[in-house]
Amino acid sequence: MAGRYLALRREPVDGVSAVVEFRAASYRIGAREILKSLSLTVEAGETLVLLGRSGSGKTTALKMVNGLLFPSAGEVLVDATPTTAWEPVRLKRRIGYVIQEIGLFPHYTVAQNVGLVPRLENWDGDRIRERVDTLLRQVGLDPELFAARYPAQLSGGQRQRVGVARALAADPSVLLFDEPFGAVDPVTRLDLQKQFLALRRDLGKTSIFVTHDVREALMLATRIALLRDGRLELLATPRQFQDSAGDEALAFLECLDWKANPQ
Amino acid sequence: MNSGLASEIGQLALEHLTLVIVSMSIAIAAAVPAGILITRRAAWRPWLLGFANVMQTIPSLALFGFLIPVPLIGGIGKRTAIVALVLYALLPIMRNTLVGILGVDAAVRESAVAMGMTGRQLLWRVEMPLAARTILAGIRVATVTTIGTATIAAAIGGGGLGVFIFRGIASVDTAQILAGAVPAACIALAADGALGWVERRWTN
Hints:
heterodimer; A: 263 residues; four-stranded antiparallel sheet; globular
């Protein structure tokens, strides 16, 4: 079955740069192989969604991009350089990272949270302030109202917006999202998803987005990588995905139909 | 109260305070880094915590006594008293430093690392500020205990308000005992209040 889907994989074309490339990347803890020889390229400007059940290896794959984890076999390249050859701090500051728990610093204001990476990079104060204002507007938060607040004074949706602004702060070349909208109510989630699409239209950032929500995958992806038990099962555009006949794709699509016709 | 007693109280209270401040400074300088170290090296945890724990379980009067024959740090006088007080204060500070840092939300730590903070930045900009309240609480407990324990320093010639207490016990003179105990209690209350204020102030 894998062969049929592998044909869909786009080879790097001249002029289209592969920003992230997995080359037979595996990850094991002891005897357990969490990711099995993943090969995949993510091209500039696209949103690659890693879709799969819990434990399918999608978060592991994501964490290999910014060097939170390193492959036990194979390699992951960012801007054509293996993650193991990158200086770890440099690699992480080039890549924005948004997680479900958000992880805002509770002792920092919204402005300090968003301005963190620029501050670590020793930008000057005026430039940081300007950048923070721009970013807060981009994620739909009025700087006048929100810059001085602490995370505890925000709603879940607002916090996640701050998390996205923080990830964008130093103008990273790649953004990683690990089920970022999983913990908010469905109405807020739709808002955040629309915001994501608007940001992509405006900024054209390359993103890798982990989710187990097939509806979210179809809405946000330019391509969907379906993982099952650590293997790449299918790599397809949302349209191709919807026409797919693979078991795992069908299992996910069934969730969608079932939601559409609850009888 | 005659002026002789008042001036002796003042002098011994000052001596007492010096014992406490010197001991606490050394204890903080040793126990906070030790606490940080054992957040990084889990294998050292039982050893360092175990040592501090054993020090605390030794009855304080006995600890002072044990130190007298020890070369370099022992003998009669202030130095021995300070060593004993330091050993006594280590546990609450070290334990609270460990607990405070380990208590930082895992998501906060993960995002700090993923933002590209170095180990040092993670410690000073994230972990220490978030653990400050817990660490200060440990310092506060240790300080109040040390103020009380320091009265025993007089038993080995360390001076301080304990001088009154031991003299009062020897001569069955309640007024003398109170002349030591009341100022010591007042210092302890004042220190507790002041450190409590710092704790609230620093960590809003």
